[in-house]
Amino acid sequence: MYVAVKGGERAIDNAHGWLAEERRGDPAVPELTVAQIREQMRLAVNRVMAEGSLYDPDLAALAIKQARGDLIEAVFLIRAYRTTLPRLGASNPVETAAMAVDRRISATFKDLPGGQVLGPTFDYTHRLLDFRLAAGDEVPAAATVPAQTGPVPHVTGFLNRDGLIEAAPPCDAVPPDLTREPLELPADRALRLQAITRGDEGFILSLAYSTQRGYGRTHAFVGELRIGAVAVEVEIPELGFAVEIGEVELTECETVNQFKGSKTEPPQFTRGYGLVFGQSERKAIAMSLVDRALRWKELGEDYVGAPAQDEEFVLSHCDNIQATGFLEHIKLPHYVDFQAELELIRRLRAEATAASRQEAAE
Amino acid sequence: MTETPITARQDWMSVLAKAPPARLAALMPDLPPHDLLRSPETGAVMVRGRAGATGAAFNLGEMTVTRCSVRLAGGAVGHAWVQGRDRAHATRAAVADALMQTEAAPRVRADVLEVLRAEAEGRRAARAARAAATKVDFFTMVRGEDA
To answer: Which of A74, A276, A357, B113 is geometrically suited to a Cys-Cys bond with A280, CB 3.0 to 4.6 A?
Structure first.
C-alpha cells in the first residue's frame, strides 16, 4: 500500500534558521562582506565562476558567502541563477594573443619574444605558513618597472612557422552549446572543451595526472601558460557593429605534445588546449592534458582504454553539479523504495527457512 | 588614419561599458531628460574562445551583461551593452552614447570619456608595470670547466 505522508515543515524552517546562525558564526567576530570575499578570496571566486560557467565576481563571492565556503554548493547557486538570465547573444571569439598578460611562461623556450613573466604566482614560495598574515601586517607595495609595450605572440606560433606543430586553422562555425542542447556522443572538440572548462577541477586534475602516469600518455610540455585580461567583443544587433563591452580574466595553457606520426599524420608536435575563467592555472594545465588525450581518434592514435581517452566517461562525469545532485539525492527520503526492498528480503528469508525445515524433516 | 563614425562610436561605447559604474556616476551625476526605449535588462552573453587560440570556436562560459536604449528629448537615440548587472551603469552609458551624437559631444568627450580613458590606461599601466617587474632576466652561471 502506498501511503503519502507530509510533515517536517517546522523542522525544515528551524534547520534553515540554524543554518543562517551557523553561517554567521561567532557574532563577536566581524561579518565578512561580499567585497572582502571578492578581493581577498579571488582564486575561490575564480573557481566558482569557471565551474558555475558564469563570469561575475560579485555573484560568485555572494555564492561563496551563502554556501559557507562550500565551493561546489556555491557553483550550484551560480548554475541555478544563470538559468534565470535571458541569453542576449554570444561574443566574438576572444583574442588571447592580445591579452594584457599578468603572467606568461613557457617551459619549452627560455628566450622568447615578450619574455618569461612570472606574475603573482605561488611558484618558488616555500609553502611555509606565514604567521604575519595572521597578525595582519601591512603589505608593502609590489615592485614596478616601466613596461615595454609590444606584442606577446603565442609560442605555438613560432613552431607553426616551421611546420613542426599541427596547425589550428580558424573556423567560425557556430559551436554546439551544452547549456542549450543535451550532451550527445560522439562530441566534437568544441563541445568537449566547453564541458571540460566548466568541469570539476579535482576531477580534471586527477584525469590529467592519470595520463602523466601512463594511462593514455601524451608526453605534454607546457608550451605556454598565460594569465591576464582579454576584451569581450559582442555584435550589437541594433547597431550592426561589434563593441568591446567588457573584460574577463582568463588562464590559457597550450601544451606541445610529442607525436611520432600515425597512419594519417606525419611526425610533428600536436596540441592540447586549456582556457578557463579567472586565474585558474592548475585547471587550465589539466584541461589541456585531458583535451589532448581525448583527441586520439582524430590523430589516428591507438585507444588503450585509458579513462582520459574515453569521452563518454570524461564528459558524463566531469560536471560536479550533476555528480553531486545524483550522489546526494540518495540521502533524501526513499522510504517506499526501501520498504519494498525490506519486504523482498523478508520473503526470501522466509522461503529459505521454510525450504531448510522441509529438508530437515525429510 | 581617419576614423570612420562607426569606429569612433565603437570606441566610446567600449570606454563607457568598461568604466567602473561608480566612476561614470561621479562624472555624470545628472542625466538629461530621456525616454527609455528599452528599459535596462540584465542577461547573459556566451563568451567564446578558439581551440588552440586560433582554431574552431567553442563556448567558454557566460558573463552577465546589462543593456539599455534611450531617446533624448532632441531625438538622439543611444544604446549601451555593459558587462555586469548595474542598471544605472547601462542607463548612463546609453545616455552618454546619445549625447555623443548631439552638440554636447565635445563636452561629454572632454569631461567623461577622456577622463575614463586616462583612468583605464592608468590601471592597465599599473598592472603592466608590476608584471614587467616579474620578468625573468636569465644570466649564465660560471661553467664548471671554466673555474
So the answer is: A276
- Report the 10 Å Cβ neighbour count for B139: 5
| Residue B37 and residue B70 in contact, taking contact as beta carbons nearer than 8 Å | yes
Our CA-based measurement puts residue B15 at a distance from the nearest CA of chain A, in whole angstroms, of 8
Full-model pTM: 0.93
Q: From CA B68, how far away is CA B66, in angstroms rounded?
A: 7
Place of cell 581577498: A40
Q: Report pLDDT digits (tens) over A171-211.
A: 888 999 999 999 989 999 999 999 999 999 999 999 999 99
Alpha-carbon gap, residue A50 to A201, rounded angstroms: 9
Q: Would residue B141 count as lying in a domain?
A: no
CA distance A271 to A287: 12
C-alpha dist (Å) from residue A174 to A38, A94, A241, A248? 33, 14, 18, 21
Q: How many domains does the structure of chain B reveal?
A: 1
The packing angle between helices A320-328 and A71-82, to 10°, is: 110
**A345 touches B at CB < 8 Å:** no
* Domain coordinates in residue numbering, chain A: 10-82, 96-120+149-169+178-324
The distance of A303 to chain B (nearest Cα, Å) reads 22
Instruction: Tell me how many residue pairs between chain A and chain B have CB atoms under 8 A apart.
Output: 234
Query: Computed from CA positions of residues A97, A103, A106, A109, in that sequence, does the dihedral angle turn out positive or negative?
Result: positive
Q: What span, in angstroms and rounded, lies between the C-alpha atoms of A230 and B45? A: 15
**Could you tell me the residue range of the domain that residue B93 belongs to?**
5-133
- Dihedral of CA atoms A222, A40, B85, A178 in degrees, nearest 10, equals 40
| CA-based nearest distance A100→chain B, Å | 8
User: What is residue A153's predicted lDDT score, i.e. its pLDDT?
Assistant: 87
Does residue B144 lie in a domain region?
A: no
